[in-house]
Amino acid sequence: MKRFAQAALLALTAGAVGMASAEVAVIVNPGAAKAPSQSDVANIFLGKDKSMKGVDLKDWTPAKESFYSAVTSKNESQLKSYWSGLVFTGKGQPMASVADDAAMVAKVAAEADAIGYVDSAAVNDSVKVLFTLP
């Protein structure tokens, strides 16, 4: 019984590590006129570049954490502080947010100038992948 419990714990740990290291895909509508670079994407998601409509995940998920860490070098508290400052000074408003990866794919597929990010497993033919992040 003890070996079974150890094996189950090992399997759960391996699964959790696998989930935390999933790739994140930065996606756009296939008809998007612009294919922004990674630095352009950072500026879009920080409200500095209005050439595309950034779409954010509502909750702080592993995909959101990976995306913001890699693209903007900001963690959750830094990002909240950043947006609080912009809102307080009237210099910006956070972008639209969606509940999950499926809603993100649907929104980006429906809007020609939308850009978002999802776990790469959620990507389908309705969106175009700009690049992936580990």
Describe the structure.
With 134 residues, this protein is α/β, with parallel strands linked by helices. It has one domain: Periplasmic binding protein-like II (D-Maltodextrin-Binding Protein, domain 2, 3-Layer(aba) Sandwich). The protein is built from five helices and five strands; from the N terminus they run αβαβααβαββ. It has helices at residues 2-20, 38-45, 62-71, 76-89, 101-110, and strands at residues 24-28, 53-57, 96-98, 114-119, 128-133. The radius of gyration is 17 Å and the shape is globular. It starts with a helix and ends with a strand. 22% of the residues are buried.
User: Would you identify the regions where 5 or more consecutive residues have pLDDT less than 50?
Assistant: 2-19
Distance between the termini: 37 Å
Beta-strand content bin: 15-25%
Separate helix tally: 5
Number of domains: 1
CATH superfamily: Periplasmic binding protein-like II
Largest sheet: 5 strands, mixed
| Estimated radius of gyration | 17 Å
State the strand order across the main sheet: 3-2-4-1-5
Secondary structure: helix percent: 40-55%
What's the CATH topology name? Answer: D-Maltodextrin-Binding Protein, domain 2
Question: Which architecture name does CATH use?
Answer: 3-Layer(aba) Sandwich
The global form is globular
Given this structure, which CATH class is correct? Alpha Beta
Would you tell me the structural class of the helices and strands? alpha/beta
Arithmetic mean of pLDDT: 87
